[in-house]
Amino acid sequence: MFRTIMHHHAASSEDCAKLCCTKIENFSVKIGRMTILDQVNLHIHCGQLTAVIGPNGAGKSTLLKAVLGEIPHQGTLHYVDAKGKHTGHPVIGYVPQYLRFDVSAPISVMDIFMACLSNRPVWIFPTRPLRRRVLRSLARVHADHLIDRRLGALSGGELQRILLALALDPMPDLLLLDEPVSGVDQNGLELFYEILSELRAKEDMAIILISHDLNMVARHADQVVLLNHGVITSGTPEEVFDDGRTREMFGMLTGGSFGQWKGRGDDCGNPL
Ligand SMILES: Nc1ncnc2c1ncn2[C@@H]1O[C@H](COP(=O)(O)OP(=O)(O)OP(=O)(O)O)[C@@H](O)[C@H]1O
Q1: Is residue 117 part of a domain?
Q2: pLDDT digits (tens, 9 = 90+) for 120-163
Q3: Atom of ligand 1 nearest to the CA of 212
Q4: Is residue 152 part of a domain?
Q5: pLDDT over 70 percentage in the chain
Q6: Hey, which of 36, 52, 179, 209 would you mutate to test ligand 1's pocket, going by the most ligand atoms within 8 Å of its Cβ?
Q7: 128 assigned to some structural domain
Q8: Where in this chain does the record put each ABC transporter domain (predicted)?
Q9: Pocket-testing residue among 29, 30, 31, 232, ligand 1, by greatest number of atoms within 8 A of Cβ
Q10: What span, in angstroms and rounded, lies between the C-alpha atoms of 52 and 32?
Q11: What is the number of structural domains in the chain?
């Protein structure tokens, strides 16, 4: 069950550019006779947060799974770091939208780290260095106080941060996040975005985030991609949110501009 939060190595055949970036080229996914993704091309720059938005069923989660190599797809993934020393095989960290587990199971946060980080069975008492390492990982996401908490007793936001900490060990080149649609309150969401901002700056990490909260995207993303089976439009938050196609797709009122509604919104996170 924890396979999806482990790390993946994606292969590529040639360099992408001189700057640190990931190029997603001509990604297509067909399931049966249905085309879910059609020729998606994206450049994801290191040190930037790229938010993917789009209606339900647009293929957002499918795109992340294809980048992870978890589902059959066409297209190629190229990665090159700034120094050109680590080209072609990004280490990818993945934070899934949700984790299915038995909420009554006596599994602690420490146990799940043990299961993911070492080959030791979880019933062996953790060694001190391992516990210190887990505490360091958890501190990165402001969650070291949760190390002995039972998984089933975590709030939605806390669980999301634990999954993020797991995806960051070892530190990935490319971080993929599928934000939960519900279960994380506004404070949890704010903290999560703050942590992502820290990471992109400190680790020079490329981050792709599927988000349903347009206000948070407007405030924190460097680049926004509007996806609906293909890329409808992409650019800065200003460019994408002022685009008539975005406004139409999300039922926004016409006439307003990005600057007027940035930071405001209704209770569901929709810009007014
Ligand atoms: N294994 C599958 N078999 C058949 N159809 C699938 C499969 N996986 C996804 N789909 C379909 O592909 C489309 C895209 O799904 P996906 O989960 O990628 O959308 P999404 O943009 O992430 O949606 P949401 O915002 O609702 O999470 C949907 O219509 C979905 O029903």
Answers
A1: no
A2: 555 565 677 888 989 999 999 999 999 999 999 999 999 999 99
A3: 25
A4: no
A5: 79
A6: 36
A7: no
A8: 22-253
A9: 31
A10: 25
A11: 1
